[in-house]
Description:
alpha/beta; eight-stranded mixed beta sheet; six-stranded antiparallel beta sheet; 18 helices; 28 strands
Amino acid sequence: MRCYTQSAIGMMLLCFIAGCSSEASKDEKASTAQASDVTFFSGARLIPGDGTAALENASFIVENGKFTSIGKKEDVKPPKGAARVDLEGRTVMPVLINLHGHAGLNTGASFDAKNYTRESVLADLNRYAYYGVAAVAVLGSDAGDIAFQIRDEQRQGKTGGARLFTAGRGITAKGGWPAVLGDIPIQVSTEADARRAVRDQAAKKVDLIKMWVDDNMGRVPKLKPELYRAIIDEAHKNNLRAVAHVFYLADAKDLVKSGIDGLVHSVRDREVDNELISMMKEKNVFLVPTLTGHESKFVYADRPSWLGEQAMREVYPAQLSAYLANDVVVNRFKRNPELAQLRQQYSTAEENLKKMSAAGVRVGFGTDSGSSDTYPGYFELRELELMAKAGMKPMDVVKAATSVSAGVLGLNDMGVLAVGKNADFLVLSNNPLENMRNAKDIATIYKHGAEMDRPSLIQNITINVPKITDKDRAEDAAAQAKAALDAAEAKLPHFGKFVLGPSANVRSMAVPTPKGSKADVKTGPPDRITISFRASAAELREFYAKALPKYRWQPSGSCWERPHPSSSKAEVLCVETSSPNTALLQITEK
């Protein structure tokens, strides 16, 4: 594993790419450096963020960190003595608000609860801020008091980075999802446990209550309805909103009926129906689709074109992209037996987002970034692109990522570019309404009307990049060879779950065996064949029921019968599978 820290050369390159060396940017820096509480910005395309039309060739005035005037360039005049910033050809939009992220767990080399420290949390908050994410809600993965300390310091102006909102420790079923977070989630098995967990988090002054209602495709226990209803009820008694990680449509519908405030993650098992949509609209339940979180489960199998693009390399080194594009990593994703299923689930998530957005469901913005194989800040820009690709109107995507999400977190002074609001905004080189990829072209970011020093946010951040070893390559080669063998075998005729192996022969009669099994033949009478093979009794019975007819054995009651090839006497074969991994075949002459 190698560590990479942003260098001074990288910062100079970033400044060049952002346009710092242009005359316009020189003027901009000179103007904003002036000692003035009033700044006049002119010439930009302004996207308000509330869903209203963009204002072309706009000018606006910022005084003491707030917008005091916004309008057409010819209608807004610069106050006497104001600093001036020329934004000709640029697009201005509100900063981003992330309703579902994680901080401090992903070092680049691993995603683990053991990685969680004050330093790792602050590093992720700075990454978020660098990419224009002004606030992030960390849902359920904050251990101990670190997040609360940082949140309080931010409120006091002592600590920077994206503004942190926290759900503290999320709540899940006993033995439930997600095991990767170790002891961070609170596991509950009774209503009393569930209510106590909520009260404990409320006492720490969490901003939200998070729960997981997911069985990881049937692998682990899932919160029962009576438990999540208790959580929702107790959260509301403590004046807290409750949000749920969901997968299944049936769970989503019952959660909304039970009073959930927000669904985080997309429904992926099937198409959402009008009942869910109507309930969410009636109850004003918000949806956070987290498309990047779902895409990350399979996308590296495709060596995505965005790996290593400039916007990513500004924070995440080229070596990380090279690692993710390495054959060893790509092959690992390709060998995932659930790859096709994950792709289908993502396609369902896309269709559901399009349908729900078009129907008027309140759509917010979140990514699940900071989890495994996801990268805070950059993935928020990717999420914008994916939401538009799924079929949301570009203006609705911007609205979801700004004013809607700000409203969810109660950030009433931001999320919209309007008179009286905080002057927190992105300056983009190109128009995201034409192509949402343009949201990655961040030229500058302003906070309270002052230009942020973006390079300083990431200057000392270290990324741990895994190194592909010779052992990794050897294991990958062996796994690829096995995968190729399995693929070839998959094309062969199957009898139940198994293909045919070499036949066992008893007195000139062939008896089928599963490929890979061991056959121990003992002549009699009666003749006995013991088949040893890793399989359940039911699987072995199915194999012989389907394979024996191929060898001229025909059903005869609960056994099988065929004539002997030389004597023509009837031979009877009975299969006993009373225990797993073994089948006893007994042949007698009738």
